[in-house]
């Protein structure tokens, strides 16, 4: 068995330096497009950090009676593999009262539910809060006339507005 004689910290520094150098070379590939150009994604600017915005959103979800099923910090996951990523968190949440009616209209909508909110920082340091438009989800699953769309849209809009007003 061959083992490296390079101390772990030096090895990690070398990996990080190589990763950062490759990111500098490929920066245009990693640059995010303006948030408004993603079909079906509703976005809003936040003046707070990604972590604070995500925390506020999760708290709004809880106080509205919904459940936060998971919170995933994509940046931390990337860093655990010595990869760079701008702050990026997702909150997976929902309430059967609002989501089940959409699945009753189109069972395949369950692949897009529970709802998710993505909070990320762009290359300019701007924080964004985004989520899939329930109407887009319904359209994707052939249920554009589903009466559940309006209530889901209203619930999402209230959560976002309350999050950004804090």
Describe this structure in words.
- The chain is of the alpha+beta class and 166 residues long.
- 46% of the residues lie in helices and 20% in strands.
- It has 7 helices and 5 strands, in the order ααβαβαβαββαα.
- It has a 5-stranded antiparallel beta sheet with strand order 1-5-4-3-2.
- The longest helix is centred in the first third of the chain and has 18 residues, at 8-25.
β content, as a range?
15-25%
Radius of gyration from the CA trace? 19 Å
Q: Determine the N-to-C terminus distance.
A: 57 Å
Helical segment tally? 7
Helix residue percentage: 40-55%
Give the spatial strand order of the biggest sheet: 1-5-4-3-2
Q: Would you list the SSEs in sequence order as H and E?
A: HHEHEHEHEEHH
Q: What low-confidence regions span 5 or more consecutive residues with pLDDT below 50?
A: 1-35
Mean pLDDT: 84
Number of strands: 5
Main sheet attributes: strand count, strand direction, barrel closure: 5 strands, antiparallel
Structural class: alpha+beta
Shape: globular
């Amino acid at each position: 068995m061959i083992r490296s004689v390079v101390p772990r910290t030096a090895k990690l520094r070398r990996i990080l330096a190589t990763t950062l150098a490759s990111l500098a070379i490929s920066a245009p590939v990693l640059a995010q497009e303006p948030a408004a150009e993603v079909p079906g994604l509703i976005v809003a600017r936040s003046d707070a950090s990604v972590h604070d915005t995500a925390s506020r959103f999760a708290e709004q979800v809880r106080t509205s009676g919904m459940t936060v099923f998971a919170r995933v910090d994509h940046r931390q996951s990337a860093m655990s593999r010595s990869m760079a990523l701008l702050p990026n968190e997702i909150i997976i949440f929902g309430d059967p009262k609002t989501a089940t009616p959409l699945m009753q209209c189109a069972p395949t909508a369950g692949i897009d539910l529970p709802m998710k909110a993505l909070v990320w920082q762009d290359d300019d340091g701007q924080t964004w809060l985004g989520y899939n438009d329930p109407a887009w989800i319904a359209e994707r699953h052939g249920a554009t006339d589903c009466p559940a769309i309006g209530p889901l849209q209203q619930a999402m809009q209230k959560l976002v507005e309350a999050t950004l007003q804090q």
